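Quick start: what a row looks like.
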Amino acid sequence: MKIVSWNLRNIGNTKLTNTFTQKYLGFGLGNDVADYVAGLVMGSNRWNAVPNLTTNPADIFIVIELKTGGKKKGGAVSGTCIPTMNNLMARLTTMVGQRYPGNPNPPYQYQYVTPQIIGYHEAVGIIFNNASLQFNASAVLRNTQNNNWITPRSVFAAQFTVRANNTSFNVAGLHAPPPGGGGANLKYRPPIDYSNVLHTTTAAAAANTFFMGDFNTDPTYTYTNGANQPVHPFTNLNGFRTFLTPVTLSSVRTNVNNAFNPPANYLSDAYDNIVFNVPALQQATTRQIVVDMIGQSRNMNGMNTPNVSGTNLKLLVNAYNTVSDHMPVVIEF
């Protein structure tokens, strides 16, 4: 099972067709945004040199910051939301055909869960492999203690059953509020407080659940409350863990800042993660990484596909900002 979670920064149908500069196109990493994204999700050889990242296609692809019309949580999406999902799914299906030519029943057959509004003009996209997974149900989640929506953006969750063994699991995509002001001791208060409401959702109470997306904080961060005590994130989210190394950078700078050593000169903070309460997952056999698609970029058209980040860093950062300001998180088990 392979799950990809990726904040694609206000992704809509028009953005999917945005192209890159001619020099970047020469590296063979993607013809436009949709092709670039699909290449990572499908495990193409563009990224087969990334440590701990297999070439297996994803069984679940979670899209964070999916653009939609409307703001009524739990309501129907509108605008380019469904066309965006159809376009992403079509790109994945095309790559499936290229990988399994002539196979009328390939092992990857993508469908999407119908999105719902989670906040102002925003939804979460969930694409899944119908050949291996049966979709059961989905919902925008509330706080079960007071029946209020999670604010400012709620959580969108879906349940699936693995066809091979009839076991079920839940995926829950989210986009936490960004860090705020008030000094270093209070910077992460908004996203930490958000993370500390997640335990009130039905997904947190269920077995075999994955929370994923842009948490805008790291499990090791804290803020100081009025009693001068540290407040930690994910309080009461009992049994959940992550195998990412603490403070694994995942947010992307808009410009290279050589006051910092790589990768901090192009990555800025540890915001994206997948946390889960699946007892069967063991760190020795589970691979969980943030995919550094800048530092691991190669020239796929060059001899021996050399890494190009050392001499083309500014170009790579500019190109990646066409796609997103966050790196994808992948877990495979």
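That is the whole record. The chain has a mean pLDDT of 97. The two ends are 5 Å apart (CA to CA).
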